[in-house]
Amino acid sequence: MALNGKLHALATQCISHCRRNYGISAVLMQKSLDPVQKLFVDKLREYAQKSKSKSELFVDADEKIKMEYNDELKKAAVQFGGDKGSDMTKFPDFQFEDPQFGPHQPGERSKLPAEVPTATRRTTTNLKQIKMYRHSTAKIKDG
């Protein structure tokens, strides 16, 4: 009896699986009759051939587009401090070094490295100013 139920469930799953695959394969086997779709695929293939045959940066680019590209690279180099020989299309390499701390002795205050600006350290004056600012903005919102 249990075997009969399992066989029935298996047959049902098999039938639904076959229907699903038949529906999908019918769509895949059908040739595209849409002219817009055919034109799109043709253009993609044409672009793929052109990009493989040419080693240039742009496909079918005229001198105006190349000049605009070079001008934008020069602007980026000036704006972000690139040298004349630097490649502004390459991602920069970062080199981080860990700060060297000496051994910490009990009772000795820890030393921050010299590169840390004093503005990042919170002092009691800064905290008082922050509290006063929050208090004044709360009055404005309530008032």
From TrEMBL:
Residues 92-127 are annotated as: Disordered. It comes from the Eukaryota. One of its GO terms (biological process) is proton motive force-driven ATP synthesis. GO terms for molecular function: proton transmembrane transporter activity. Keywords: CF(0), Hydrogen ion transport, Ion transport, Membrane, Mitochondrion, Mitochondrion inner membrane, Transport. Pfam families: ATP-synt_F6. It is found in: Mitochondrion inner membrane. GO terms for cellular component: mitochondrial inner membrane; proton-transporting ATP synthase complex. Belongs to the eukaryotic ATPase subunit F6 family. PANTHER family: ATP SYNTHASE COUPLING FACTOR 6, MITOCHONDRIAL (PTHR12441), ATP SYNTHASE-COUPLING FACTOR 6, MITOCHONDRIAL (PTHR12441:SF10). This is Putative mitochondrial atp synthase coupling factor 6.
